[in-house]
Amino acid sequence: MSLSINEPVSRAICQATEFSQTSPWLIAYSGGLDSHVLLHASAKLLQQGRAPSISVIHVDHGLQAESRQWAKHCAQVAAHLHLPLEQFTVTVPQNAGESLEAAARHVRYGVFEKVLPKEGLLLTAHHQIDQVETVFLQLLRGAGPKGLAAMPLRKPFAQGWHVRPFLMLNRTALEEYAEYNQLHWVDDFSNECRDFDRNYVRHEILPRIQTRWPGYAKTISRVARLQGEAVELLDLSATRLLGDIESPDDQTLQVDALLKLSLLEQKNLIRYWLNALNLAMPSEVKLQTILQQLLLARQDAMPCVTWGGGEVRRYAGKLYAMDPQPVFDSRQRLDWELGNKLLQVPGLPQPLSMDVLLEQGFTWPEIGRINVRFRQGGEIITPAGRGMRKTLKTLFQEWAVPPWERARTPLIYVGNTLAAVYGFAVDEAFYTTPDGF
Questions:
Q1: Whole-angstrom distance between the N-terminal and C-terminal Cα of the chain?
Q2: What strands lie across the sheet with 425-426, from one edge to the other?
Q3: Is the pTM of this model over 0.90?
């Protein structure tokens, strides 16, 4: 009887992880039934020599009064199974336009991303009904093939992979395993709250469907698998096209080349491109706006389409995609002392590095201090080796610096003299050749 109850669970874990047999496992453990089964079965495989090293992670979101007790329970279970456990307490932000479920998931996976070792496997206990619920939710959101493919069995994640071994198992198999092995788990009563979309689907919609179509879970799981295959084909097509359209130096798309594609190819390629840049996918309306306003704009136009998770701009015959640009104060001025290797500038993602200036050939002044400013208009500099004074506007055009980056490009002043454009040029009066002359 033990074999018949335990075998489907153990086999599912082994099959899902066999592609990377020596990679360490990081098991996400909430304390609930599903993740407890995953943890217990994985520990048994470890004892049998059928699993590599295993560590456990528990994230306390602090959203329920009982969460501290759940954390204690998880620590006790991990200790009983002789598995190392890391626990994290996080704060879930209440972001506008994002559900509490989604916000908690983003914070949780942010922790997983930091903890997962190189080439490691993050194992989570999502099962067949979780998959079905995801398909329904994506369908109601008007998702395309990628959304309807729902959750893949495995996908690249952080420095390794995210693996869902139970994705083809129904929850009954997990319940039978838990009962047979006398496991004790915690129940999150928020899972009964119908205010959450997933819980509403789980408790109100799926039971009615099962009454009419008892085999619906397998059928809808097959839909997700087939949609996943369709996504693979679409991605393969986009990959082949991208090689001729994307500029590898700056990951932009050539507008002229895009216009030679069919409308469907344009849509597919832009979606693939944005996903590769880790940007949130725009709505169908926003995507249509990109196609109409950016691709068909005048040659000298510089339109921009923005949505919650990103923006696409056109400049010099190229499409640029990026995170939404934050508000930036170009009037700010910052002193930079010689002893500070780095200077953090409000509004810029990366600190300025003294090494960058020195590599450009910049000569640090004897006063030991420079001033960082930003473009106001009318700046002039004589780039070393050019022998000719030029306006910064002209140089930005020569260097093909996109307009939205010009106001954010740091300018290095010695007194009131423009001495360098950070990352681009040094004025000849402040330039030293690599050999010191």
A1: 84
A2: 334-337, 369-373, 411-414, 417-421, 425-426
A3: no
